[in-house]
Request: fold
Amino acid sequence: MRLSDLGERALIEEIRKVIDRKHEFIGDDCACLPIGEDYILITTDMVRRKTHIPKVMKARDIGWFVAAVNLSDIAAMGGNPLGLLFSLGLPEDMDSSTVKEIMQGAKKCAERYGIHIIGGDTKEHNELTISGTAVGIVSKDEILLRTGMRESDILAVTDCLGKAGAGYLALRHGIENVSLDGLIHPVPRIEEGRKLSKYATSCMDISDGLASSLYQLMTMNNLGFELNAEKIPISEVAVSVAERLDIDAYTIATDYGGDYELLVTIPPEKFEDAKKEFSKTPLIPIGRVVKENRITIISNGEKKELKNIGYEHFRDVG
Amino acid sequence: MRLSDLGERALIEEIRKVIDRKHEFIGDDCACLPIGEDYILITTDMVRRKTHIPKVMKARDIGWFVAAVNLSDIAAMGGNPLGLLFSLGLPEDMDSSTVKEIMQGAKKCAERYGIHIIGGDTKEHNELTISGTAVGIVSKDEILLRTGMRESDILAVTDCLGKAGAGYLALRHGIENVSLDGLIHPVPRIEEGRKLSKYATSCMDISDGLASSLYQLMTMNNLGFELNAEKIPISEVAVSVAERLDIDAYTIATDYGGDYELLVTIPPEKFEDAKKEFSKTPLIPIGRVVKENRITIISNGEKKELKNIGYEHFRDVG
Reply:
């Protein structure tokens, strides 16, 4: 079957069958290698000019972006980052100053988290293609996994959603005077992941969009969610873009990827303690875990099913 | 400056200045992260359909190849491999069976070394592009580095050279009945690297070709080499292709990359002990380390400079 018919998630399932990994963490944000009392976390993520890098991104933004999306996977598992590697596929007519700027952007992101770029590879490619690898470490008893949530756990996010989606829609519809910062400058929630590792029963980053992420958690945990649309923290930029496009602002938060906030479940009795640890950035409850295998959202007093129309590679947005 | 004018090695120097890594191991085959008594080794290598994958390679060969070239970097540092990750950039019109075959090939290589494919990423790409990441571990006192060689050390390789170069030339010149196994099926020298970690003063893999590798070692160590052309173990396939093309067989071994044998320096007093550990595969002395900062090769009693015409990305083969 052609990949365009199969879709990314079905493909990943096929690959999983081939590699035959009977491993407790398969399907998580990072691969985990047990070393003594710790897990070494490793994750790799490829971006390419045409589909992942909006033209408004400068070379430095690209470097930051690749570093950030990889570090976000370390954050989602409660890890401390250790280093970054970059595999660069570069057009031969690219200027070396552009490559240096890409790496300066990556370095800036690495430094923000107290780590270094420790290695990589350069190759010729007809299209700028960068595969980042992030390495981290987390003690075995503090690791955050996608599985483990329980009925009645509180569902929460680490900050406003819809920042990236609003930027994407602004570019697509030519809406001016909209901040693109959320789209091109994601901030991995490393400190937040570390704090959550004491409280959370499950965690992942929202890179694929809230709805898509919730459906992935539902499948892995065999539990559903009930969300309250009014509680979803919508970024100002999403509210503004939603007004211009005459759509419900919360759908920008649920249907578009790229926000890189953490999506987390916390037992109700621990939630207040967890929240106290969040001062600079918030920890915002948006719903709860339910026994039924479905995801509903209450909006304007009306309860309806949340549709899964987040972005999936090899397939168009639904 | 355009990358095609700058060349790969000058580009890497520029990148190094940007990332400002004052780290003892920068420039080695893997990045090293100290964890307790060990180093975690991490390396990443990107291949793409057009420039790295000869058309004769089947999907399974491609998977093996990407796994092998990454594991070879672990071997070159004396490491034990722990796992492999694959970032797959896949054309949307590719059949999912092709992706499965790629992963089956990768799995076969991983299993050969007792490890698993532990993670990865899939993305759409207009050209098949795979970035592999290998992770390994080595105790701090057993790590093999590119630096450390001393004058009079014996220079040795782990097996015959020219296998990949002969395959490349056979394809380029349409020479039939030549085994392409050395080109498409490299065998990382993991066990050999582990053995050498007790004896070697420096080590790297010969992925870029013997001459190119020696020039890299010369620059890093500020010492030169004297080689004996008659001692360089030339594979049968290289001898056969050299005859057909009427060229010196040893130039196939020196000027073409892709062999993935280990190139190693060993103090003369330790060489016999090291050699005794090699039974299934050989350890073949081909020259020695000299004080002068140049590389000479003695062929037919004549001493001449060994030219550095190994493959460099972004530049044509000289």
Observations:
- The mean pLDDT of chain A is 91.
- Chain A has twelve helices and twelve strands.
- The radius of gyration of chain A is 19 Å.
